[in-house]
Write a structure and sequence with these properties.
259 residues, 5-stranded parallel sheet, 3-stranded parallel sheet, 38% helix
Length: 259
């Protein structure tokens, strides 16, 4: 056996592991700078993916109003085209609209031109519905390749990831989801020792079709919003506007250590 070939499997495994980390780990910055934390320990950015969803989004907007909580909605272009009034309602209530592509593909496998097309089509849907494109982008499944973040940046958007994604798309009991969101409260209790805050990724829609059932997400938030508020957390959009009087210091485009 050629001795020079001995190290090839290990090298290949290392390369695969590196690419996987860059593509999947939400706070990896190796494929481009992303926003993954807020700028203050008591500043919580609640974000929702896969809407707008006529079955849940209106109820969610009412719940957020109840607690004067602003949030960020990363919407799918084809659903915006079907529900332009709902997209406008999200914006009118003071929430941020972000780009979540036109059809919700896994961008890791797409060519640069296909990635650009997905993002641009969603921008077009938002422009048509609300009169302005998004300034923030979240890749479906959080998957990136070497040109996803740079393409979003070329199109005028910062890419947003998260610190906690509790898995609310799974068919689990409300109690399970509520427990999965406990780290936000734990971080709130230790805010004095923390420099940054959380970006929470939830879902108000289902990417395969409209009217997805996200009642458990709504129920978990009904439980947590008053408790997070009582811990002194401020609900902000990724841009920073929200329940702490509209400061523009919302989120940090840095990879800070997980905690």
């Amino acid at each position: 056996m050629d001795p020079t070939l001995i190290g090839i499997p290990a090298t290949a495994a290392l390369a695969v592991g590196t690419v996987t980390y860059c593509a999947v780990y939400p706070r990896s910055q190796m494929f481009g700078t992303t926003i993954c934390r807020t700028s203050g320990a008591r500043r919580l950015a609640i974000t929702f993916d896969d809407g707008p969803n006529p079955a849940i989004t209106p109820k969610l907007l009412d719940l957020l109003d109840q607690f004067q909580a602003q949030a960020s909605f990363f919407v799918i272009g084809r659903f915006v085209r079907e529900c332009p009034d709902l997209a406008r309602e999200i914006q009118a209530r003071g929430h941020l609209l972000g780009n979540h592509t036109e059809t919700h593909p896994n961008l890791f496998w797409l060519s640069p031109s296909a990635v650009r097309d997905e993002i641009q089509k969603c921008q077009g849907a938002l422009q048509s519905a609300t009169g302005e494109p998004a300034k923030y982008f979240r890749p479906p499944y959080g998957m990136r390749n070497p040109w996803v973040v740079s393409t979003a940046r070329e199109l005028g958007m910062q890419t947003v990831m998260w610190t906690l994604i509790p898995g609310d798309w799974q068919e689990k009991p409300v109690e399970w989801l509520t427990a999965k969101m406990q780290p936000i409260a734990d971080h709130g209790k230790s805010a004095a020792s923390r420099a940054t805050g959380d970006v929470l990724c939830l879902h108000d829609g289902a990417h395969r079709e409209l009217n997805g059932d996200r009642r458990h997400t709504l129920a978990a938030l009904e439980y947590w919003l008053p408790r997070w508020r009582d811990l002194g957390l401020k609900f902000v959009t990724i841009h920073g506007k929200g329940s702490d009087k509209g400061s523009d210091e919302g989120a940090e485009p840095v990879n800070t250590p997980a905690s």
